Amino acid sequence: MIPYLRVKGRSMEPLCKEGDFVLLDGLSYLVFRPKAGDIVVLRHPNEDRLILKYIMEEEVKDGHSFYWVEGLNKEGSSDSRSFGWIPREMILGKAIVVKR
In the chain, how many domains are there? Predict the structure, then answer.
């Protein structure tokens, strides 16, 4: 069974809207590393919830990857502009958006 999530909020509009589904591909990043342009599901660093974001940039520090992630709806998104760089370990997988 492929895990899926239902979109809540407007942070990724217009790509996906509240109520759309997101399939979580947790296997891709076992082989490939996340890269700029990927849409990912990750743990929110300050809250107990999962979020959907777009990877804008990767930075490697001391052999560890960190990512700058943003929502597409700049006014309605909790993202790296408020919580900063996130470590690779917080990314659960690549997101595949399915419209409802």
Answer: 1
For residue 80, give the H/E element and its range.
helix 80-83
CATH number of the CATH domain containing 92: 2.10.109.10
pTM metric for this prediction: 0.90
- Domain residues for the domain of 35 are 4-98
Decide: 7 and 17 in contact? Cβ < 8 Å: yes
Report pLDDT digits (tens) over 25-46.
989 999 999 999 999 999 999 9
Residues 45 and 54 sit within 8 Å (Cβ to Cβ): no
Tokens 């947790």 label which residue? 26
